[in-house]
Amino acid sequence: MATQQTETSLGKQLFSMTWPMLFGVLSIMSFQLADSAFIGQLGVLPLAAQGFTMPIQLVLIGVQVGLGIAMTSMISKALGAKLQDYARQLAGLVLLLGTVSVAICCSIIWFLSDGILSVLSAPDNVYGVIHSYWPWWLLSALLSALIYFYYSICRANGNTVLPGTLMVVTSVLNIVLDPVFIFVFDFGLEGAAMATIASIFIGLLVLVPKVSINHWLVFNFKGLNIAKTLTEIGHIMGPAMVSQLLPSVSSLAATKLVAGFGATAIAAWALASRFEFFVIVAALALTMSMPPMVGRMLGAKSFDDIEKVIKIATRFLLIFQSAVALLSFALAGLLSSAMTSEAAVSDVLHWHLMIVPISLGPLGVCMVMVSICNALGKPYRALLISALRLFVFFLPCLWIGAQVADLKGMFVGILVGNVLAGFSAHKLYKASLKQLRAG
């Protein structure tokens, strides 16, 4: 049993691991907003092409995130157990596996592009735009996956400053290069993908040598039981991939329900979703920073430290998001007016900003518990938490609220669903930790 750490010491470690991820996530969100704004100036067809690209992109992201979760969980656990050589071999193996897997997926998407577009009911006039855009976009997706795997290796080794800094740098580069490639060089939609390729390539030029210098991976697999290791990777990767894809299914169902209240409700829903993304950034950062810490503690069998650090994170999220909710409630009128000039949309958004943010603390706790269960080697428990949140709590409460009191009731339903999801997620995490303690 490893020496127990104090809450103050663990809190400092958690802060030092989390703040780089916080800025990294914020920078990526800012880039995505800027990218959408630039593409929006190109007209309807490029926007439509991007719209048909999104569901395919979610599949690729599911593959890379699933592998990244497996990589972080297994490497950090190996390091906690003082198995440095095994951790390096794992990093090399998963990097190769991930890059080849995403490359194969990209190739399949390209060769089946017409069939995919047909299934998505894409209009004929979009095909030409997509045929020009997708080769560049698929290359950018492959490079995005590659740099993500390198980021995962850094995080698993306890370094979040390097990936966090590079996330900011590549995002700023992308924002700068976007208008150059799109408008100055007149590459249009393809220029957006080219800007991403250029910025990520520059990031890799910095990142790859740093990882090599620190000896965080090797491609010498002598003595490694590759078949057994791949089975272990798949055990975590499979459920994690499914967990990543579940929100897309849930989002489609929720959008269909909201659409029943008209275009005004949909517009307010889209704006509110974007607002929520920004205000839960602390939870998103914690989902990236905590798994390496928990994985190492698991490898060292420091169960008390695991419990302490999760208690610190949970307490922080509930207090921080409560403060955000109070601000959102007090400034709901100003915020809704600032986010849209349409009075009808502003009215709906105003109610959303007053009600839903109250529940974002429990929602953040639920998100963190998913990542923690993956780090504890309980991927199916993590998948269960995700499924319960979306299909047992969120969607049913959304529907019941809408039936009882229309849009306002729907927002109350979201609040109730998020609170129930957070409570149940914490209970399931506690059960997982109890099982691990029992051996």
TrEMBL record:
InterPro entries: MATE_fam (IPR002528), MdtK-like (IPR048279), Membrane_Transporter-Flippase (IPR052031). The keyword NAD does not apply. The keyword Transmembrane helix applies. It comes from the Bacteria. It is found in: Cell inner membrane. The chain crosses the membrane at residues 21-44, 56-78, 90-113, 133-153, 165-185, 191-208, 245-271, 277-295, 316-339, 351-370, 382-404, 410-429. Keywords: Cell membrane, Membrane, Transmembrane, Transmembrane helix, Transport. GO terms for cellular component: plasma membrane. GO terms for molecular function: antiporter activity; xenobiotic transmembrane transporter activity. It is a multi-pass membrane protein. This is Putative MATE family efflux protein. It comes from Marinomonas balearica.
